[in-house]
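[step 3/7] fold_predict: job queued, chain A
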Amino acid sequence: MTKNYKILAKFIKDMSSETPDVETYMYVKDHISQYQLGIDINSKAIKSRLIEVNTAIRFYDKNEGTKKSIFEFIYSSIVQIDENLKDKKILEKIVLVDVQKEIFPDVEKTLINLLHNSGYPAIKIEKEIDFEDLYKQNIN
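[step 4/7] structure written:
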């Protein structure tokens, strides 16, 4: 199957790392294995056949407690859609699956660099994200 889109540009639109104090840093360093990865994807038309796809990444602790750090960023992709593509379901799959699969190595590297530069060098992302499976779960 021929690819019916092209990523023209990729960039970090916004980035944040928040650790309020030394006590929080020490606590998070011991408990960062409890943190979870959250992904939120949205898109908007820029002009004819151009879409801005924003992949918001959040690495956070959803447990109760006050000693927390927050790590988040928005990774934007400018996507050009083939002029023959008319089916909205195919377009949705491009945004939620195809683009995500293509950009995720860069997204993952950005998250790891953010964590390492925030003082957490031992962090690795060990679980693969299956965007195809997530998409199928959401449409059912």
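[step 5/7] annotate
The beta strands are 5-18, 36-47, 50-60, 70-81.
Residues 5-139 form a domain with the Bacterial Protein-export protein SecB fold (CATH 3.10.420.10).
exit 0
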